[in-house]
Design goal:
With about 300 residues, the chain is α/β, with parallel strands linked by helices. It is about 30% helix and about 20% strand. It has helices spanning about 1-20, 25-40, 45-50, 60-65, 85-100, 115-120, 145-160, 180-190, and strands at about 50-55, 70, 75, 110, 140, 165-170, 195-200, 210-215, 240-245, 255-260, 265. The protein has a nine-stranded mixed beta sheet with strand order 5-4-6-7-3-8-9-10-11, sandwiched between helices. The protein has a two-stranded antiparallel ribbon with strand order 1-2. α1 runs antiparallel to α2. The longest helix has 20 residues, at about 1-20.
Length: about 300
């Protein structure tokens, strides 16, 4: 107990020193935090009051400790730019699901990346309806520089005037690392607003995100009639293949998730079989493209074989 109290005092002293260097004065805040820590040394009170966005799926919400944090960062990444549509669709689904559970006239801010927009396209107002959103629900900005995008994301989250902020980046830029991620996380924590970090064609890296999802496209579910039969020749709701890469769960969680834009909620596909898996993903999954049907990709023959007499 004595060591814990000493560590807390040292931490508060460092925070006050940093505040003085930044021209701020936080003695009252430090005293309040010290009092809260003494009243709740294990942090159970704060953890229990943390706002969450549940998926409504027991296995999923259990792995997420109740749902996604509404006062922090959730990272959504794709392996390839070809999967940008699936990752963007999942981010829009989360935003729509959030607005359905917490009705508000406040919009969602999408901070687009210029390069990603050139390769994968930008938001389409008609396509937003497929996720239960309208053009009035989305504000779109496309800064030309990453520094401007980060400043806009910090300002938007800190304002508390938006339902959520979606920051789109491509790959693993050098000027967006753990320091910038922590600063965004502190802004989100202070304002009590979520930030969805959408990373296209990026690798795993350290960040302050509470959870990180790898999103891949999956086959759309079959459309079912009210009597339970399958309506042939039609395409059902979109399905995402998710892998929970970062969480308190010791093993990666993989699942198929169905998005219903009419009810604005997630569910498990009926015909997905055993959607949940804790098996480790293969290091080299192999090619993602099917083989050519007419075998035109085979190497052509070198020529006709001519019978010749032996030289010796």
């Amino acid at each position: 107990m004595a060591e814990h109290a000493t560590a807390q005092e040292t931490l508060f002293a460092l925070r006050e020193q940093i505040a003085r260097l930044e021209g701020k004065c936080l003695p009252a805040l430090a005293a309040a935090q010290q009092a809260d820590s003494a009243a709740d040394p294990e942090g159970q009170k704060v953890k229990g009051n943390q706002p969450r966005l549940p998926f409504g799926i027991m296995q999923m919400d259990t792995a997420l400790e109740g749902g996604l944090p509404l006062d922090g960062i959730t990272e959504i990444r794709s392996l390839l730019m070809g999967d940008a549509g699936a990752a963007s669709g999942f981010a829009l689904s989360l935003a729509s699901h959030l607005k359905a559970r917490h009705p508000s006239e406040a919009p969602v801010l999408w901070i687009g990346d210029v390069v990603s927009g050139q390769e994968a396209g930008i938001l389409y107002s008609v396509g937003l309806r497929q996720f239960g959103l309208s053009s009035r629900d989305i504000l779109y900005a496309s800064p030309r520089k990453l520094d401007d995008a980060l400043w806009l994301a910090e300002t938007a989250v800190a304002s508390g005037a938006l339902v959520a902020t979606i920051l789109e980046i491509r790959g693993n830029p050098k000027h967006f690392g753990l320091t910038e991620s922590r600063r965004l996380g502190l802004r989100a924590k202070a304002a009590g607003r979520p930030l969805f970090l959408l990373r296209h064609a990026g690798e795993e890296e350290a960040s302050s995100a509470s959870f990180r999802f790898l999103v891949e496209p999956a086959l759309a579910a079959h459309r079912h009639l009210p009597d339970g039969s399958v309506f042939g020749g039609s395409i059902g709701h979109p399905v995402f293949r998710l892998t929970l890469e970062k969480s308190r769960n010791p093993a990666p969680l993989s699942l198929l998730l169905d998005w219903n834009p009419h009810d604005r909620q997630f569910s498990l596909p009926r015909d997905a079989g055993e959607a949940f898996s804790f098996r480790k993903r293969p290091a080299h999954p192999g090619t993602r493209l099917p083989a050519s049907a007419d075998r035109q990709d085979r190497t052509p023959a070198l020529g006709d074989v001519v019978a010749l007499e032996r030289a010796s």
